[in-house]
Amino acid sequence: MGENSKSVVIIGAGIAGIQAALDLGDMGIKVHLIEKQPCIGGRMAQLDKTFPTLDCSICILAPKLSECYRHDNITLHTLSEIEKIGGSVGNFSVDVLKHARYVKEGVCTNCGDCGTICPVRGITNFFDADLVTQAAAQIAFPAAVPAAYRIDPSKCLYLNYEICGLCYQNCGADAIDFTQKDSILSLDNVGAIIVATGLDLAEDIHTLNIYGYQKYDNVISAMELERLICASGPQAGHLSRLSDGKHPKKIAYLQCIDSRSQKGQMYCSSVCCMYTTKEAMIAYEHDNELESYVFYIDMRAGGKGFQKFLQRGAEEYNIKYLKSKISHIDVDKDDNPIITYEDYETSE
C-alpha cells in the first residue's frame, strides 16, 4: 500500500476478520471492520469448544473481542453492509450502509431493562440457532461486543406505529434513540480489502427435508446441537431432545448433507468431519453411555493432529464411523428417528 493509502477494510468480523484486524492494527494500519450482525465474533462465538484441542471457544475469543473493541487503530462498524466498492488496487473507495441500532452504543449499559419491559415477544434469536425467542429490544448474548442492545425495526411497535415506547420511557441511561436513521459511510483511500465473510449453514431446505429436517423434531442441524450442548446455550449445556426433553442414548451424525452433490454444493466443506467428532465427544462427556454413529462418504481430516483426533473419538468416546450413504429417515411412534442407509463396506 502507498503512504496515502494506509487504511484497510475487512468485511466480516468473525475470528478471521478479528485476527486480521488486530494484526494490522498492531502494525499501525488503520482498519475498518465491517460486520452485518449487531455484534462481532461470528460463528466462533456460538461454539462450545474447538477442535482438535477441545479448548473453550469463548475463552479464546473473548479477549480478542475486547482488544478489537478498544484498539486505537480499529473502527468497528456493526449492523453494516458493503453498498458499493470503487477504485482500484491500492486506492479503493468503499460505501458502507450502516443500519440504525436505535440504541446509543456508547451510552447503553447492557442492563437488559428494555428487553424485559418490551411487550413484543417471539422473535427468533440467530445466536441460539433460532431455538429460543427474544423481544424486539434485544442483544445476541450477554457478553456481546459491542455491549449494547438494539431494537428490531421490523417488529418494534413505536418504529412501525408510534405506539408503546416503554423502552424509551424506562431506560435509566437514556440510551434509546428512535431518531436514528440508516446512513451511508464513504471510505476513501482504502489500500486493501480483506474478505473474511466466513461460512453459513446449508440453505437448501428441499434437500434437508429429505432427511427430516424441520419435519421431525429430533432431526436438528449441527449448529442447533452446538448451542444445546454449550454451557451458555438455551439449555445451559443440558443435552435433551427437542420433542420431549428426554436425554438421548443414541445420536446419529449425517455428513456431507447438501455438499459434494450436484444438487447442492459440489465442494467439501473441509470441517464437518472434525466438528462432528468434536460434538460427539462433548455429548459423550454428558453421558458416558451415549452411542454416537457418524455416517460419512469419505473421512477428510487433513489438518495437524486431526487424524489422531478421530482415532481418539473412536477409542475413547464410543464413536462409530460408518462409510455409507443415507437413503431416507422416518420416525417411530416415540419420535425416534429411524435411518435407512447403504453400508459401503458390506454393500447392504
UniProtKB/TrEMBL annotation:
GO terms for molecular function: 4 iron, 4 sulfur cluster binding; metal ion binding; oxidoreductase activity. It holds the Pfam family FAD_oxidored. The keyword Iron applies. Keywords: 4Fe-4S, FAD, Flavoprotein, Iron, Iron-sulfur, Metal-binding, Oxidoreductase. InterPro entries: 4Fe4S_Fe-S-bd (IPR017896), 4Fe4S_Fe_S_CS (IPR017900), FAD/NAD-bd_sf (IPR036188), HdrA-like (IPR039650). Signal peptide: none annotated. Residues 99-129, 147-181 form the 4Fe-4S ferredoxin-type domain. Its cofactor is FAD. Belongs to the HdrA family. This is 4Fe-4S ferredoxin-type domain-containing protein. It comes from marine sediment metagenome.
